[in-house]
Design a protein that fits this description.
Largest sheet: 12 strands, mixed
Shape: globular
Structural class: mainly beta
Strand content: 35-45%
Number of helices: 4
CATH class of the largest domain: Alpha Beta
CATH superfamily of the largest domain: Fumarylacetoacetase-like, C-terminal domain
CATH architecture of the largest domain: Alpha-Beta Complex
């Protein structure tokens, strides 16, 4: 029967009701299966455990919980900057989300009580695999484990009220990621879309980024040291829209998959 091929991987973090573990998602006989692996792909060598479960029978979790930070990029698509009445900044606009903002596939996005205008932002997320400081664009591929889907939820009303975006961007559940980490992806021109209750909101491509993935990570690494498991969110295309409690958001990136989350207010 054989185990998963480890050169090209879709790395998932999942549970079947027991402790979370990592696995490789791979099709077998026309059905997606999850092959359990030992260890943590970010820190240790991995090998199959022999546990094989149909993907439909597991609960997928956030494929990585950043040990340190989520670095985000604002206004990296010209059309998105324009739709909010902003110019593309001459200097890349960076901000942080805490790791407490991260949730996984199917987890609820909880609208904070202080906001009445939360909007979605579909983004390509980069997962860092080793410590990176002052990396050249040519060497960025060496520090990247892979890519996943992300949703940079933003409280627009809070964002307009303050220069620092802490309340707007950092609230709990404001950074869903998943469904897994795809290690074999050319990020230069992949389709990225979002929809709310099946209605398309964003329909873009990473080819429209103002700054490429390599350039972004290189520049970020001149400011902060990137650590294994850190995430870099690379900006969002035009079409962002407000979401309401009771709705469901899908973020789809070609070559990766779809991240789905319900929206609630508590």
């Amino acid at each position: 029967m054989g185990g998963p091929r480890l050169a090209t991987m879709r790395i998932a973090r999942f549970t079947t009701g027991e402790d979370p573990m990592y696995g490789i998602v791979q099709a077998k006989d026309g059905q997606d299966m999850v092959y359990g692996i030992t260890g943590d792909p970010l820190y240790t060598e991995i090998s199959p455990t022999g546990k094989i479960v149909p993907l439909e029978d597991v609960r997928l979790l956030a494929p990585v919980i950043p040990r340190s930070k989520v670095v985000c990029v604002g206004r990296n698509y010209a059309a998105h900057a324009a739709e909010l009445g902003n110019e593309v900044p001459e200097q890349a606009l960076f901000f942080l989300k805490p790791n407490t903002a991260v949730v996984g596939p199917g987890d609820p996005i909880v609208i904070p009580e202080y906001s009445h205008e939360v909007s979605l932002e579909a983004e390509l997320a980069v997962v860092i695999k080793r410590m990176a400081k002052n990396v050249s664009p040519e060497d960025v591929a060496d520090v990247v484990l892979g890519y996943t889907c992300a949703n940079d939820l933003t409280a627009r009303d809070a964002q307009r009220e303050e220069d620092q975006w802490f309340r707007a961007k950092a609230f709990d559940t404001s950074c869903p990621i998943g469904p897994w980490i795809e290690t074999d992806l050319d990020p230069s021109a992949v389709a990225i879309t979002s929809s709310v209750d099946g209605e398309v909101a964003q329909n873009g491509t990473t080819a429209d980024m103002v700054r490429s993935v390599a350039d972004l990570i290189a520049e970020i690494s001149t400011v902060v040291t990137l650590l294994p498991g850190d995430l870099v969110l690379t900006g969002t295309p035009a079409g962002v829209r407000t979401v309401e409690a009771g709705s469901s958001i899908d973020v789809t990136i070609a070559g990766i998959g779809t991240l789905s989350n319900p929206v609630v207010r508590r």
